[in-house]
Design brief:
Blueprint: E1 22-30, H1 36-46, E2 50-62, E3 65-71, H2 74-87, E4 92-95, H3 101-112, E5 118-120, H4 138-145, E6 151-152, H5 156-163, H6 170-181, E7 187-191, E8 199-204, E9 209-214, H7 225-238, H8 243-259
Parallel strand pairs: 1-2, 1-4, 4-5, 5-6, 6-7
Antiparallel strand pairs: 2-3, 7-8, 8-9
Helix pairs in contact: 1-7, 2-3, 3-4, 5-6, 7-8
Length: 278
Amino acid sequence: MPISSEPVVPSVPPGPGRAPARVLTVAGSDSGGGAGIQADLKTMLAFGVHGMSVLTAVTAQNSRGVQGAWDLPVEAVRAQYRSVVDDIGVQAVKTGMLSSAALVETVAELLAETDAPVVVDPVGVSKHGDSLLADSALDSVRKKLLPTATVATPNLDEVAQLTGVEVRDEDGMRRAAGAVLTFGPRWALIKGGHLPGDAVDLLTDGSEEHWLRAPRHDNRHTHGTGCTLASAIAAGLGTGQGVLDAVVAAKRYVTGAIAAGFPLGGGIGPVDHAWRFR
């Protein structure tokens, strides 16, 4: 299925006095604004939903890499989540950076008690190659977090980290998807952006299989692509779209955001979350 970079019209806005769909991100902060909580909230706004956040970690981060990272206490993460969900409610949840086993297990417990679709982005390594997930947390991601997912969205590095499957071609993506699905998510979206040629992703639930293709843009400023894609999927699910429709719209949005990515600082700049409005 080819994916164009034509603009996607956001969901019909609510009428006066009506709240838009509520979507929650549970992730770390990127002080440079290209990824993490910042990218998630920008994406959610672009899709016309009300974004809310549970902060799991603070990073000192810029276009050149991650200079430091500090986890929030488990109690702070749990309190933020309960504060939002118990009062405001959520229609979809997206998870990102959860660097320790304690954080993974806490968030997994909270998600299991929440009646809403969940997009799990199993963040392992930053765009600059910095590790964002402790080795000791991998088993918790496999056994606790992934079973809560409506859609899991690993890239090829994360697939290798979680399953040991090294993907070098599209057949490898199919094997990777099967390995990820054994951990319990309803759908796996294997992101093949690190392969040569067109940017191809595989969405499957083990029976249906959808290959999503988009042209590869010659732009090095791609910081935040994974966070952005997962948040866009969550926004679609939060407005009532099915998984395939939400993923197709998210892929189209990310393709346009990559094409419009811009330089910041001396390293890798971010994708442009506002590309449809410029």
